[in-house]
Amino acid sequence: MKPIAFQESASKKIYDSYIKRIKRTTSTLPKEDRNEVLLEFNSHIYEGMQRNSDPSEVDAILAILQKLGEPEDVLKPLIAKKKLLQATRTFNPLHIAKALVLNIANGVSYVFFAFLYILLFGFGYIIVEKIRRPEEVGLFFVDGQFETLGTMGDYPRDGRIMEVLGNWFIPVMVLVTVALFVLITLLLRMKQRFIK
Questions:
Q1: Is residue 134 one of the residues assigned to a domain?
Q2: Number of folded domains in the chain?
Q3: Cβ neighbours for 184, distance < 8 A, ≥ 6 positions apart
Q4: How many other CB atoms sit within 10 Å of the CB of residue 104?
């Protein structure tokens, strides 16, 4: 991006400060998206300055920036949308978490997706607990009926209770967790495409 040349140093300082705020606000986005946003704002400022009839350059830049709005407020929905796109493209759990936090105010469906991802962390916790307490954690059946997935607790250890996966519990849970993660992320991607 080529910075705009100003005749007055005060105008340049105002412009530079605004551009820094845009850069800070978009810092969580990929470089390509940050550059796109900067180019768009720079273009609006440049065109506004070209159409300007105000004799004071400072007044002109202030009027243009006021029309554009505060970068932190104006860019919030755009950043949320772009972060969600990045998250569903990369399947990166950190990007997904950031995208959901940014989009949580955009509807109940994002709260639902956040809840689903939190459940996946619960599966991870169960896997760790199986390593720590192998006799108490697993997929338990009582009298041939499903009882619980997780910790069995203080049930008496008679012949009625059976942990059905045994040594396969951890590989099965890892596989289920990964499959659910991919499925939930694909559903999030489909939701995003549906909104477009």
A1: yes
A2: 2
A3: 113, 116, 117, 120
A4: 14
